[in-house]
Structure formats: C-alpha cells, structure tokens
Amino acid sequence: MKLYLSSYGLGNQPEKFTSLIDGNKRTAIIANAWDLSTPEERAGGLPEKLKVLRRLGLKPEELDLRDYFKHQDLLEKKIKEFGALWILGGNSFVLLRAMNMSGFTHYIVPLVLSNEIVFAGYSAGAVAATPDLHGIELVDDPLHVPEGYNKQTPWKGLGLVDFRIAPHYRSNHPESEATEQVVKYFKDNKLPYKTLHDGEALVIHGKSVELVS
Asked: What is the DSSP string of 132-161?
C-alpha cells in the first residue's frame, strides 16, 4: 500500500510522492471536491494543477467521477489505466459523495491494498482516506450539495488508514482556525488522529508512516 497524504498541494517534498510511483506515470487528477464551484471556476483551476504534475515527470489527466454516476461498471477499467491518483482538496463531503455515486469507493480500496495504484491527495483528498468524516463537519459544510448529487451525508471514509487527519493545522490558511475545533473533537472523542501543517505530508508505504515537511 502506497499513500501520499498532504495538507496543502504537493507539500514541501513532492519528490516523496513521485518516488512511490513505479513505471506507469499516468496520473488521474480527481477534482470533484471542487464541484460546488461554478463550471468556469472549476475548469480554470485545473491547468495549473496539470502543469505542476507534468513538471514532476508525470502524465496527468482529469478523471471526473461525475462521468460514472450512471456508468459505475466502466470505472474500474478506467482506474486501472493509471499508476497514481492525485485527489484535490475542497469539500470533503462532496468528494465522498462523488466517490460513492461513481463506484470509486468500491473499486479503489483493493487496488490500493494490492499496490496496483498509488493513492495521493491533499486536504479533502487526504481526509477521504481516513475511517470517517466525523468532526470534519466543523470545517466543511456537509449540507452544501451540488446539483445532481445524492443529498444523504456520507460519513464513512475509505478506511485506508486507521487514524483521522486534520489538515491546515496552525497554518496560514483560511480553515486553520476551524481546524482547531476539529482537533478538539478528535481529542474529546478519543479518536486517533494526526495533524498536518501546510507543507507537510504523510508518506505511507506498507506499515511505514513517515511525516515529511
């Protein structure tokens, strides 16, 4: 299992992400956490994300999970074309809705566990890998639902790690203040968690968990 879970963007050591990728450099960018944005805003933010990954020697392209809401049977084959995923931040609940409605949740876990694909993401993309989203409602509104999305709040995460993640912790980020409340929730409920300052990332390779900054 190979994961790269960052607080913001690629973090201060993006080479730690690329070092996890063997052979297949095709990288799927998943931007569905942005689906509350206007189509123009969403489309306008992607070129820079693609450019950054190309500079690292990767071959990125967008994988829009909305394309599979009614075609879940096609997603597994599509995912297997990639060597890595790069899942962008945004609203964690919107992202999990997209993962559930597309069948991504069902297909991705065994692929990651069998080392067939590297799972990487930041902010909401990192939070999605955790057991559940309880506490994240203090920073991401679970009631903001894009058109065409299931309104039921998704609380269960992918469970690729056994701890929760609080990104943007004590950083110069608009969500940093609310993140303090998320951490308090984790502490009060005795939930295992890790905080990430912007620039930091967790590199997970098998049972090894390394914090890089």
From this structure: B-TTGGGTS-TT---TTS--S---B---SS
